[in-house]
Write a structure and sequence with these properties.
Layout (H helix, E strand, L loop, with lengths): L18 H9 L5 H13 L8 H12 L21
Length: about 90
């Protein structure tokens, strides 16, 4: 499986979802686990995470240390627990 899922609502689909809206949703605690991983995968690969406020770098480091994301930004999907469906 690739770094980012093929979902239409992927974080890289900034044309429809909007990058800043994802950041705001993260700040408000509104993202699912998969959306958080996709966001931080993108931020790490783009090297933006280290230029944002400290909590982003700390969150990225925590995700890396937990084995959910590689330091290259690749998501370790086998470590991700399936999300419950509403």
């Amino acid at each position: 499986m690739g770094i980012i899922s093929d979902k239409e609502d992927s974080i890289e689909n900034t044309q429809s979802d909007g990058f800043f809206e994802k950041i705001i949703a993260f700040e408000n605690g509104e993202l699912t686990q998969v959306q958080v991983l996709e966001l931080f995968s993108y931020l790490i690969r783009a090297k933006l995470v280290w230029k944002l406020p400290g909590n982003y770098g700390r969150t990225a480091n925590s995700l890396i240390e937990a084995g959910l994301i590689e330091d290259s930004g690749e998501i370790n999907w086998e470590m991700v627990e399936p999300e419950e469906q509403d």
